[in-house]
Amino acid sequence: GIGTTSIAATTDGRLKISAPSGISNSGGISLYGNNSNTFGGSNVVRSKIESYTDGTAFGANMVFSTNDTSNVYQERMRITSGGEVLINATSKLNGYTSGFKTLNISADSGDNASIIELAGNRNANSGNQNGMIQFWNKTSTAAEVSRISSIQGSVVNSGDIQFSTSSAGTLAEKMRIEADGTVLIGTASSGYDTTQGYPLHAMSDLTSQSYISVARKGQTSGSAGLIVGLDTNNAYLLVRDNIPLILGTNNGSRVFIQPSGYVGINTSTPRSRLQVDGGIQMADDTDTASATKVG
Question: What's phi and psi for 100, nearest 5 deg?
């Protein structure tokens, strides 16, 4: 026992450290350096491990501190009485209760950032995992519900990012960002030569149909907005709202399809099934078109 004459008998060899009477701390360990040439002074506290009360009768926080290069004592990590881990912070930022466990890594003040490094040591075998973040639900039988993985490429300095989710207990890849920036949704490989410029690939779990939906905030993407997709019989570019569909080139609007089905070329207000603002050519006509030419 250190700082106490009351030592309960134990069988696990524990060391009991108590703060003197009247001191709010529960006890701690200070580690000193004694090399004046190297560290700038003798008998200087280099680091501390301390136990602080959390303001309750029994709860305590474990605090780890070090001296910085200016000989200023700084708290570096705290394990709260609720089991949360705070690195370079004394409190978490989110408003969840202590039942939602938090790992907080905070940068120093000023223009700084926090970094988490996951460093693998894999060989060049394509498909090896260099690092991953796993998400589990342990309500009853522990089950992995989603995962983010770094997948080794064909050489040790390349790789993909893989996103996986679980359906009814089966974990499967749902999206991948390949080393060249190609994004694959619903498939692990593009089936195309990505050097030819196919930056986005989307594949449904269904063999009958696949769609991409675009909707504004507040809309229901299943019944509003724009869809691009196909089924076994047709391909679709479909506007579900009561607004025109506009096709354009060179940053300009060229073709207007009104909700009524009227189509305008170079006019946004067609008054018939097809209205063209300008001349048209038909069949094998080779004469130069003009504003009044009709064929």
Answer: -90, 95
Summarize pLDDT for 216-225 with one digit per residue, the tens. Answer: 888 887 789 9
pTM of the model: 0.72
CB 181 within 8 A of CB 191: no
On the question of pLDDT at 108 being above 80, the answer is: yes
Residues ≥6 apart with Cβ < 8 Å to 227: 211, 212, 213, 214, 236, 237, 238, 240
Give Cβ neighbours of residue 101 (< 8 Å, ≥ 6 apart). Answer: 82, 83, 84
pLDDT digits (tens, 9 = 90+) for 39-74: 445 566 678 898 888 888 888 899 999 888 877 888
Kindly state the tokens that stand for 236. 């679709």
Strand-pair category, 85-87 with 103-105 = parallel
Q: What percent of the chain has pLDDT over 70?
A: 80
Q: What's the CA angle centered on 165, arms 161 and 171, to 5 degrees?
A: 100
Alpha-carbon distance 242 to 226, whole Å? Answer: 11
Distance CA 204, CA 247 (A): 26
Question: Residue 259 in contact with residue 270, Cβ under 8 Å?
Answer: no
Q: Nearest Cα to 136, choosing from 164, 108, 177, 107?
A: 164
Question: How much is the average pLDDT of 21-35?
Answer: 66
User: Binning pLDDT at 50, 70 and 90, where does residue 198 land?
Assistant: low
Instruction: Give the C-alpha separation, 194 to 176, whole Å.
Output: 14
Torsion angles phi and psi, residue 223, rounded to 5: -135, 0
